[in-house]
Amino acid sequence: MLTLLHLADVHFDTIYAGRTLDLRRRLREAQQTAFEHAVDCAIEEPVDAVLIAGDLFDADRLGLMTERALLDQLRRLEAASIPVVYATGDHDPGPARGRAASIDWPANVHLVRSAEPRVIPLTDDDGERIGQVVAVGHPRAQVSENLAIRFPEAEADVPTVGLLHAHLEDAEDAAAHDRYAPCTAADLQRTGYNYWALGHVHRGQQVNADVPAYYAGNLQGRNPTETGVKGGLLVRIPPDGLPDVTVQPFAPIRWHTLVLDDLAHVASVDALAGGIEDAFQAVHTQALTTEWMVRVRLRGACPMANALHDERERRALAKQLTARLNVLDVELVPDMLTPPVEVAPHEDEPHLAGEVLALIEDIRTDDDYLNELAERISWAHPGHATPAARRAYLRGLLMGLDREALTRLLVDAE
Question: Where do the Calcineurin-like phosphoesterase domain residues begin and end (predicted)?
């Protein structure tokens, strides 16, 4: 049985722009803590190797103290006789004068920074070969070629694992990432490898049911879009069979988004705060030891809409909620939030409001127009491949627009 720990997209020393100094420090510490947790797991298991599928750090801004902390953890793995195979990505590419090439890595680290495939044999305590990793790195920051087609087909009589930082077209959320080293599931499948350890897309997933190719996701969420459990993948590969892959949560901070869209009767700060607290407690019990960064999307009709559109009011309330929920940070986002207005009485009426409502309804219900709009505005439907999915996405963007337009027209008419 070959046992591996698959990590990717650590992005050490992310800037975290727009956050307070204290919060930036805490988020950077969380990255180091998550990596330490990963090393703990690798040693306790123990694994036969740790695989890092690119973007270990966030460009050449890796600080000296972070580098020292990283090397300390890698030396722990060295002391435990656990090899590390690290293939560079677009944020930590491998040119001769680049940051990855300049670090004095411990002897157990196999740095792969070339586009030429490199085979790293894995052995047991007796020196018997139990598997091999075939890895390709990014030699520069922007690789547009398909690196996956460079990998040779599997020939060894032991499990073969591919290690690559790549943009796999079929992956969920792939459209949210730059199209570097693009490839398809078929490119990976043709190799016959037992497992593919991928990096680049930050959502952990098996990208295709027919191919043992996985994104580990990033080790620690970095922004409000990177929600949920973050960590790595523990992979067990039998001599002849499919890999057993389990998610290992390593991140000490979890980003989470709450959506409150039933606010028609919420007319006070206490009522709103209570609703947010109830919604948070429902998910908080799932991970009591985790610290939280919480974004709250407020949608629909709400008597407090005008106040919640005031940034100062939101910041003051968010500060109170941060203390009340005992979390690191709360962000309030008004999302199609409007004062309570009745749309129906104004529909089909011979005035401007009636005409605007009719226009919005025509757009929302006209499939042909939505298809045309989706083609003209390609950025409006990332990751939505079918016409039906694109129409649904655009209809979602139009949701609540009738109330918002009517609210503005009625205010202007007063």
Answer: 3-203
